[in-house]
Write a structure and sequence with these properties.
Chain lengths: 320, 249, 119
């Protein structure tokens, strides 16, 4: 018997893990990534002649209807056409019984890798604004994401932001509500008393963690956005201004009535921060506002001050 | 006892009602017991041997004896019956038993082997010793990880071997060869299907199909073996998920 | 509004203000009107020049330096003319004049529409 070294072991393991696409219109080309919910592969679509991303879901399909529900969710999503929303093309069940779905193959980087290249705080904030856009769009059409996190956000070659894995969490949550006592989840996913996989700790809103999947609303996504924002801010070396921290905190309030009511509000506050204006999360007294105005216009103030000082000096000197 | 280090085929087969290997080991039916024990030994003897050598620093003669004695002891003393799946994995349990066994054997005088114990002389200790040349156990390395790794290695090797046999029986040696080329040997990912097709005198599409076949079969066999060597359904599913990200219902 | 007009406006306004400060010098208070007119004209000219410069050269630093230069130069021209009593007020006119030039330079660089801009 041949001895398998560590590399061979890993190769075999990856091979065993490959989705069996025999009989489907897809062909495996390679593996793109590996997440909590399953692995993503680059596959060739034989029918349309293009490459797409195929995600195999590790979540069990107990009643056989998981794939159907995913397709239904995908249809809803297909109505949303926004450059930042990566829709699901196709969903189904593999010959080996696992559920999969396909989506646009995104050439880009995950956002947490991408931001390492950005040094300036303001650049990161502008990136964050671009994340808010597709989410706001979806909310306006009544669609929640429910599982926003850096692993689901990519940045393309032109700086465009793409948010993926829409609807997956909802289908799973609905599934969980219908079928209690789900099997134990893999590490990295959290469970409730129902044993259902709901989201990712750290990015999941408190109401989601409590299992209140049925009553989630936009503010739950806003919580996740706040967690993402906080993540972006954590890597910055300069001290974060209070107003900005207030914005992040407002998103992360445990009581959702205290959070922003809409993503537009959040985005507006970020814009206000960038323009040096007052921010909703951090209402200021007139003194603080004056202080900020002065900092913003310091060039003017210095010049005018210089003029006044010189003038006054001369007047005083001359009239001694 | 079969003279094979691998599990030589599914003759007799493990009951498909997925009886726990632990329960079967304590069964009244001698054949069931034997089969369960064979499974267990085939899956664990190499990790145990290597563990004794590296972790406990025994030389190869000592390790050989100890390995045999360990399995004898494990089965005789019905340690397996005290295994509680709720408290952890079977292989962790085995390792812990091993540690305890080795600690005790340091203290107690060597007892004379009693008759009727299992003869494990047919295990290929030389090969195992040779493989050790590849391995190192750094002092800081987690012993649990090492044992688990070796156990995995055993599992995959056994599965591969079983696949090879099956492919031979069915005249599908080429299929197996393709799996070896791409997924076992180095440099697999640099091979194009066309090159390999030419080399082996096949059509390019055949390469794709045959490879898919052997991968599929490999996974099937791997899961079968895994099922046979885990204590119960629950553990099997957990292991399947960890190992392959698969959920098997 | 374009930069030249902007320069004109600000230069003129600052010129008026600067001229009015002469009121604090009792010695020349009687000539206040003349001073204000002169200062305003100086400001207008400076404003046009600096504004024109801002249309051609887009650099905040250069704009400020140019403004300083123009402000000093024009102020010098005014200061070179003695008042009826024969006194010269070089410092008092030139230094604030230079600063005013800088202010106009800053303003015209940052605001107003340039040559190729569409707002």
């Amino acid at each position: 018997m041949k001895w398998l070294d560590d590399n061979a072991l890993e190769r075999l393991r990856a091979a065993a893990e490959l989705p069996d696409l025999g009989g489907t219109r897809y062909q495996v080309l390679g593996r793109l990534g590996h997440g909590g919910m399953g692995s993503v592969y680059r596959v060739a679509d034989g029918v349309l002649g293009r490459e797409v991303a195929l995600k195999v879901i590790a979540f069990p399909d107990r009643d056989g209807g998981f794939a159907d529900r995913l397709v239904r969710e995908a249809r809803i999503l297909a109505q949303l056409e926004h450059p930042g929303i990566v829709p699901v093309h196709d969903a189904g069940t593999l010959p080996d019984g696992r559920v999969f779905y396909t989506m646009k193959l995104v050439n880009g980087q995950r956002i947490d890798e991408h931001v390492q290249r950005l040094a300036a705080l303001n650049e990161k904030l502008r990136l964050f604004q671009r994340i808010c856009e597709p989410v706001a769009f979806a909310h306006a059409h009544g669609v929640l994401h429910r599982d926003l996190k850096p692993q689901n956000i990519m940045v393309g070659p032109f700086g465009e932001v793409l948010v993926m894995d829409w609807g997956l969490s909802k289908v799973i949550a609905d599934d969980a509500l219908a079928i209690p006592n789900a099997d134990s989840a893999s590490p990295g996913e959290s469970t409730t008393g129902h044993g259902a996989v709901l989201g990712t700790p750290g990015y999941m809103s408190p109401e989601q963690a409590r299992g209140e999947a049925a009553t989630l609303d936009r503010r739950s996504d806003i919580f996740s956005l706040g967690a993402i924002l906080k993540g972006l801010l954590d890597d910055v070396e300069v001290p974060i201004p209070r107003r900005l921290r207030a914005i992040a905190s407002k998103c992360l309030e445990s009581d959702r009535t205290q959070r922003y009511n809409s993503v537009e509000e959040l985005a507006q506050d970020i814009a206000n921060y960038l323009d040096g204006l007052q921010v909703k999360a951090h209402p200021e007294g007139p003194v603080a506002r004056l202080g900020r105005w002065m900092v913003k216009n310091q060039a003017w103030l210095l010049l005018i001050l210089a003029y006044l000082v010189m003038r006054t000096l001369f007047i005083v000197w001359k009239n001694r | 006892m079969r003279d094979e280090t691998g599990i030589g085929g599914r003759a007799g087969g493990f009951p498909s009602t997925r009886q726990s290997i632990v329960v079967a080991a304590g069964s009244n039916d001698a054949q069931e017991r034997q089969q369960a024990l064979d499974m267990l030994i085939a899956a664990y003897w190499k990790p145990v041997y290597k563990y004794i050598r590296l972790r406990w620093g025994k030389d190869n003669e000592q390790a050989k004896d100890l390995t045999q004695e360990f399995f004898t002891r494990l089965l005789e003393k019905e340690f397996l019956q005290s295994y509680d799946p709720g408290r952890g994995r079977l292989r962790t349990f085995v390792r812990v038993c091993l540690d305890r066994f080795l600690a005790n054997s340091e203290n107690a005088a060597r007892r004379i082997k009693r008759g009727g114990e299992l003869q494990l002389v047919s295990l290929d200790f030389e090969t195992a010793e040779g493989e050790l040349g590849h391995a190192e156990l750094r002092s800081t390395e987690n012993v649990e990880e090492f044992f688990a790794k070796e156990w995995t290695r055993s599992l995959f090797s056994n599965a591969l071997e079983r696949l090879r046999k099956e492919c031979e029986e069915r005249g599908k040696q080429v299929h197996f060869r393709l799996l070896e080329l791409y997924d076992v040997e180095e440099g697999g990912k640099d091979l194009t299907y066309d090159e390999v097709a030419r080399q082996l005198g096949l059509k390019s599409t055949d390469v794709t199909n045959y490879l898919a076949y052997s991968r599929r079969e490999f996974r099937r066999i791997l899961l079968e073996l895994l099922r046979e060597t885990t204590a119960n359904e629950e553990e099997f599913r957990r292991e399947a998920r960890t190992l392959l990200g698969l959920d098997v219902s | 509004m374009n930069k030249v007009w902007l320069g004109l406006l600000i230069g003129g306004a600052l010129g008026v203000v600067d001229g009015l400060t002469a009121w604090f010098y009792p010695a020349v208070r009687s000539q206040l009107l003349g001073i204000v007119i002169g200062s305003t004209i100086k400001g207008l000219i400076a404003g046009v020049l600096i504004g024109y410069f801002a249309r051609k050269v887009k650099s905040l630093a250069l704009g400020i330096i140019f403004g300083l230069g123009v402000g000093l130069l024009l102020a010098y021209a005014v200061a070179a003319m003695p008042d009826p009593s024969g006194k010269h007020y070089y410092f008092e006119i030139m230094i604030p004049g230079g600063i005013v030039g800088m202010i106009v330079g800053y303003a015209t660089q940052r605001f107003g529409t340039g040559v190729l801009q569409t707002r």
